[in-house]
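User
Here is a favour to ask of a fellow structure person. I am asking you to supply a protein in sequence and C-alpha cell form. Please set it down just below, with no commentary around it:

Assistant
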Amino acid sequence: MAQLWGGRFTKETDKLVYNFNASISFDRKFFGQDIEGSIAHVIMLAKQGILTKDEKDAILKGLTGIRRDVEAGRLEITEEYEDIHSFVEAKLIERIGEAGKKLHTGRSRNDQVALDMRLYTRAEVLHTDELLKELLCTLLHIMEDNRETYMPGFTHLQKAQPVTLAHHLGAYFEMFKRDRSRLKDIYHRMNYCPLGAGALAGTTYPLDRNYTASVLGFEGPTLNSMDSVSDRDYVIEFLSALATIMMHLSRFCEEIILWNSDEYRFVEIDDAYSTGSSIMPQKKNPDIAELVRGKTGRVYGALISILTTMKGLPLAYNKDMQEDKELTFDAIDTVKGCLALFEGMLRTMKFRKDRMEKSAMKGFANATDAADYLVGHGVPFRDAHGIIGKLVLYCIDKQCSIEDLTIDELKTISPVFEEDIYEAISLKTCVEKRLTVGAPGPAVMGVVIDTAKEYLAKDWHEEDEINIPK
C-alpha cells in the first residue's frame, strides 16, 4: 500500500480501512489536472529559487513522461496507490530518484486536491457550455423554419391560445440561455487558484501564488488559506446549475413524450432515438426522452448529497469532502450525455405541422380573440368575457367550434358580431396581431430570432475577456 504519510505510524493500516479511505478508484479522473498543477508548481518553485534548474528540468521531464506513458497506455494507474497524487509522486521518484521527492515542497494534498477539483470543474463548465450552445443552435434553426407553424398554446395542459412552434420552442431557448449565464457566473467566481494554501495555514516557503495562478489560467490566488482547502461552493453551484439544466431538459422531454403520443401526433421521433416493444410490434417508444426525464432525479440527488455532506463541516479540510467527487463526476457525465442525446433527438425529429394546426383550431384557443373582437366594437371586456363564455357553451352543446357557426347563430348570442368576426378569429390573425415584444407574431419573432443569432455569434468568455486555458 503506497502512502505519503507513513513516518508517524508504527504499523500498517487495516486493509478494509485503507480501501475505505482510498480514492484512486475515482480520483484517477484528475490525472491530467494533477500533472498540470504539479508542472505549474515546479516552475514556480524554480523561479523562486526553491528548486535548482537541474531539479526543475528533471521533475518536468519525469512528469511529462508519466503523462505521455499513461495517455499511450504504457503505464497503468493501479489501485495499490491511495490516490492519484500518491501514484504520480511515487512514479516520479521511481523514474528520477531524489529530485522527485522535492515535488511536494510547499504544498499539501489539501491544496493539491482543491486545485485538481477546481481545474477539472472549470474545464467541465466550459464543456457543458459548448453542449448548451450546440443545443441552442439546433433550437434556433427549428425556430427559423417554423415562424408560421401554428399550434395550440397550453395552460393546465388545456388549450389556451394559438401560438407558433417557433414561439413555443423559443421558451426553451430562453431557458437554456439562462443556463449558460449561470455557467458564466460560476466560472467567474471559481476561477481563483488555491495552490499554495498548504494544509490550511499557508507555508513558510517564499511561494509566488500570483505567478502559479497566472500559469494555470486563473484570475488570481484565493485569499484565505483555510477557505482555499475547505471551499466546495463552486461544486455546489455547478451541481445546482446542472440540476437546473436537467429540469429544463426534463420539461422539454415531457412535452415531446406527449407530442409523440397517438393522442397528439405532433412529432415523429427518428428511429435512431426510439426503441420498440418485445411483445407489441406496433410500438415506437420515446425512450431517450423518458431516460433524460428519469436521469434528472439522479442529478438532483448529487446536489442534495453534497449540500448534506458540507452542512456540518468545521474549518478547514475534512475527509468528508472526498465525497464531493464520485457524485459530481457522475452528474457531469450524466448531463453531458443527456445534452448530446437530446440535441440529436431534436435535430432529427419531424414536426407534424398539419396535426399542430388542426389541433390549434379545436378547443376554443381563439376564444380570447373573440372576446377582444367584441371589445374592439365597444363591449366592455368583462361583458365580452361573459358573452364568449356563453358562446363556448353553445358550441360545446353543438359539438362545433366558434368559426363553424353561422353569422345568424353568432348574432343570437350578441348582435355586435359581423362578418369580419371570422377573419378576426382565424389562426393567422390570432397569431399575427400579437406584436408586443415576446409574443408569437411573426414580425416580433423575427426580431427575437435575429437577437438570438447575434447572441450565438459570440462566446461569453470572448465578451468578458476571460482567460480560457488552451
Observations:
- The chain has a mean pLDDT of 93.
- The first strand starts at residue 150 and ends at 155.
